[in-house]
């Protein structure tokens, strides 16, 4: 039996995140979705950390639980620094086995003048390599995973402030980085041809800034839902499958300028001489472009491939079939009814049969879910911060 995990989350103390991101609501939504293990998120924020300490219940095996949902202590740290004469910005997902370790991490960051009581994802002016070394010094059981590795602004392999390889960034710490989070705008297949990622476990999480987006991407690990299961799952690539967006739906899939309304494929950018036809400036290079730049089609890669499923959020499917917005009352009511009846959103999207779907959600919904599951979709790709759209094909 595996367990589903969403380990890139935020609390209401992270910038641009919903005020509804409380532990009570996060645990409730984990059940609506069907997620077994959540990240506590934002554990460096003093007010949130106090809530975590007060609320999360230690289990016998050293994990944490709240309202029947398992939690691990996790956060995101933004490393902003210079290396090789260039500005670098790398987001890291960091996990700690217990509160004592978390206290040590907060002290270490505060010692580096990181402001912990502002954004729940603190910024530190130190390299990703140095932060990793310091975390492992505090507790060798800490886990570090580069977050949304391809996004232009804060991905380790991103076009703006990133690197061309994981070891360029982490140096001697590279072997201590077990996995990479691929982000919404790429899927595992796009990553399998990238030599820079050889030997790293590929994981996907939601980076949700609001409750309904929890679990929009997630990873199903083999083993027990807890810190040890997670740690061995990451180090040994014990991944049963990842649940993915269609990468085109991610907001940095193609190149372009959102303000200019210009979206380009990598080929089109090349032919346009790396210029936006509207404003003449270089376009924001998206994930597909970077993946192609760093891929090597000729050298067969020694990657351990894992199955993955591409899905669209149920609320979006309902909005489409009902011809309304995703916040419309009737759409939200239908969403909760279907999730309640059929065992959670992930079950609905990945497992529920046509008959059950039709009975609970109607014919249009049933046929839309089945179409998306089998990849019969119409896609408008995202670019430069604008989400793409994926709807069932007519
Ligand atoms: Zn981030
Ligand atoms: Zn432009």
Please give the structural blueprint.
Elements: E1 2-6, H1 23-33, E2 37-39, H2 46-55, E3 57-58, E4 64-66, E5 69-83, E6 86-96, H3 99-111, E7 123-124, H4 128-138, E8 143-146, H5 166-170, E9 179-181, H6 188-192, E10 201-203, E11 218-222, H7 227-235, E12 239-245, E13 255-257, E14 262-264, H8 266-271, H9 287-294, E15 308-311, H10 314-322, H11 329-342, H12 345-350, H13 354-361, H14 363-373, E16 377-380, E17 389-392
Parallel strand pairs: 1-2, 2-5, 5-7, 9-10, 12-15
Antiparallel strand pairs: 1-11, 3-4, 4-5, 5-6, 6-8, 11-12, 13-14, 16-17
Helix pairs in contact: 10-11, 10-14, 11-13, 13-14
Would you identify the CATH H-level superfamily of the largest domain?
A: Metal-dependent hydrolases
Q: The biggest beta sheet, please?
A: 11 strands, mixed
Please count the beta strands (DSSP E, at least 2 residues each): 17
Radius of gyration: 21 Å
Question: Oligomer, anyone?
Answer: single chain
Beta content comes to: 15-25%
Overall tally of structural domains = 2
Q: What global shape is seen?
A: globular
Task: Indicate the CATH architecture of the largest domain.
Answer: Alpha-Beta Barrel
List ligands, each type once.
Answer: zinc ion
For this structure, what is the CATH class of the largest domain?
Alpha Beta
What's the tally of helices? 14
Q: Termini, distance in Å?
A: 37 Å
**Poorly predicted tracts of residues:** none
Structural class: alpha/beta
């Amino acid at each position: 039996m595996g367990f589903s995990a969403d380990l890139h989350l935020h609390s209401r103390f992270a910038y641009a995140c919903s005020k509804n991101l409380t532990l009570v609501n996060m645990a409730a939504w984990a059940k609506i979705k069907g997620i077994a293990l959540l990240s506590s998120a934002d554990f460096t924020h003093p007010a949130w950390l106090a809530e975590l300490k007060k609320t999360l219940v230690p289990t016998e095996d050293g994990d944490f639980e709240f309202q029947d949902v398992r939690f691990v202590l996790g956060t995101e740290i933004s490393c902003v620094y210079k290396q090789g004469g260039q500005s670098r910005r790398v987001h890291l997902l960091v996990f700690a086995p217990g509160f004592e370790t978390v206290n040590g991490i907060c002290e270490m960051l505060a010692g580096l003048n990181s402001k912990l009581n502002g954004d729940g994802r603190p910024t530190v002016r130190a390299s990703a390599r140095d932060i990793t070394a310091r975390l492992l010094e505090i507790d060798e059981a800490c886990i570090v995973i580069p977050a949304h590795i391809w996004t232009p602004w804060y991905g380790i392999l991103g076009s703006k402030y990133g690197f061309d390889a994981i070891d360029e960034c982490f140096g001697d710490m590279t072997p201590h980085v077990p996995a990479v989070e691929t982000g919404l705008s790429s899927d595992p297949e796009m990553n399998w041809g990238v030599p820079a990622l050889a030997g790293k476990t590929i994981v996907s999480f939601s980076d949700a800034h609001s409750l309904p987006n929890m679990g929009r991407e997630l990873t199903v690990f083999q083993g027990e839902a807890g810190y040890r299961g997670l740690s061995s799952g990451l180090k040994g690539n014990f991944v049963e499958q990842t649940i993915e967006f269609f990468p085109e739906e991610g907001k940095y899939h193609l190149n372009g300028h959102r303000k200019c309304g210009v979206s380009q494929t990598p080929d089109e950018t090349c032919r346009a001489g790396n210029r936006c036809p509207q404003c003449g400036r270089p376009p924001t290079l998206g994930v597909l472009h970077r993946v192609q730049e760093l891929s090597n089609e000729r050298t067969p890669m020694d990657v351990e491939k894992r199955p993955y499923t591409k899905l669209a959020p149920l609320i979006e499917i309902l909005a489409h079939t009902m011809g309304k917005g995703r916040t419309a009352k009737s759409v939200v009511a239908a969403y909760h009814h279907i999730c309640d009846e059929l065992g959670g959103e992930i079950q609905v999207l990945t497992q529920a049969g046509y008959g059950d779907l039709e009975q609970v959600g109607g014919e249009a919904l049933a046929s839309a879910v089945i179409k998306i599951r089998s990849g019969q979709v119409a896609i408008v790709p995202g670019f430069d911060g604008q989400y793409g759209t994926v709807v069932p094909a007519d």
